[in-house]
Amino acid sequence: MSATDQVQLSNFGSIFSLDGKVAVVTGGSRGLGLHAASGLLQAGCSKVYITSRKKQACDEAVAALNALPNKRPGAQAISVPADSSNMTELDRLVAEIGKTTDHVDLLFANAGATWGEKFDTHPEKMFSKVMDLNVKSIFYTIQKLTPLLTAKATLEDPSRVIITASVAGIGIGSIGENATPSYSISKAAAIHLAKNLAVELGPRHILINAIAPGFYPSKMASGLIELKGGMKELEEYSPNRRLGRPEDIAGLVVFLSSRAASHLNGAVIATDGGAVLKGRL
């Protein structure tokens, strides 16, 4: 074995470590965002900024995260409530983050919304709201955080952006009485946004990838889960016979944020147990 091989093997022990990294999680007060934030802190992040529209929800999430027993010494979650669909609020969010850090290593762009209503009566107001939050706000959150994301990024240690899309943006989402056209379209756009920005920002040492979750039991998904027959039916439909769990999303986000994913850029990873391959979501 060569000396180079020995050096490479000796480094694999820290391949998933996020020791000392600074992360921002939008939509981080509940659901997938909160699961991911928990994973990021437990993987070694020193600061995880939690933002969502409601201050109380952010504060409660941060209190729970800061009570985790296995964080690195001094690690903390920080509440920065903001409406990321509002450009003025986004500017304030970035300014607030900049008061306590000079850089950001990881952005989990997870804020999102949905609306279910049949095609014939789907309201323009809600279509616009979903598109604004699921696409426009992601673009501008990344744009406005780019100076902090590039501040310490290098070729060997690039910053990461992970965009939450959906398997509804890969296949076809819900149709009929509770159709979600704005959601499905917005998530397809989020996937294409990740691909475009991967090429745009890769040379600046920012890697952009998207995740496409299937059904994860959560406040936002619970209604649609029931409309599709409930958890048991959806579990039976999935090739792996279950729905998503907190550790599934946390592990994927930690992986994409770590050195193990340093050569992934513009990737789209479905996390749905293979259900999208069967052609119905």
Low-pLDDT residue spans: none
Please state the structural category: alpha/beta
Please tell me the total number of domains.
1
Note the main sheet.
Answer: 7 strands, parallel
CATH superfamily: NAD(P)-binding Rossmann-like Domain
Question: Mean pLDDT, as a whole number?
Answer: 90
Q: Which fold does the CATH topology refer to?
A: Rossmann fold
Helix fraction, binned, reads 40-55%
What is the succession of H and E elements?
A: HEHEHEHEHEHEHHHE
Shape: globular
What is the highest CATH level, the class? Alpha Beta
Protein name: Rhamnolipids biosynthesis 3-oxoacyl-[acyl-carrier-protein] reductase
Keywords: NADP, Oxidoreductase
GO molecular function: oxidoreductase activity
Pfam families: adh_short_C2
Structural key phrases:
281 residues; alpha/beta; 7-stranded parallel sheet; 9 helices; 7 strands; 43% helix; 13% strand
Walk me through the topology.
Layout: H1 3-10, E1 22-26, H2 31-42, E2 47-51, H3 55-66, E3 76-79, H4 87-98, E4 106-109, H5 124-150, E5 159-164, H6 181-201, E6 206-213, H7 219-227, H8 231-237, H9 246-257, E7 268-271
Parallel strand pairs: 1-2, 1-4, 2-3, 4-5, 5-6, 6-7
What do these coordinates show?
- The protein has 281 residues and is of the alpha/beta class.
- It has one domain: 3-Layer(aba) Sandwich (Rossmann fold), CATH 3.40.50.720.
- Helices cover 43% and strands 13% of the residues.
- The chain has 9 helices and 7 strands; from the N terminus they run αβαβαβαβαβαβαααβ.
- Helix 5 packs parallel to helix 6.
- It is globular.
- The N and C termini lie far apart (49 Å).
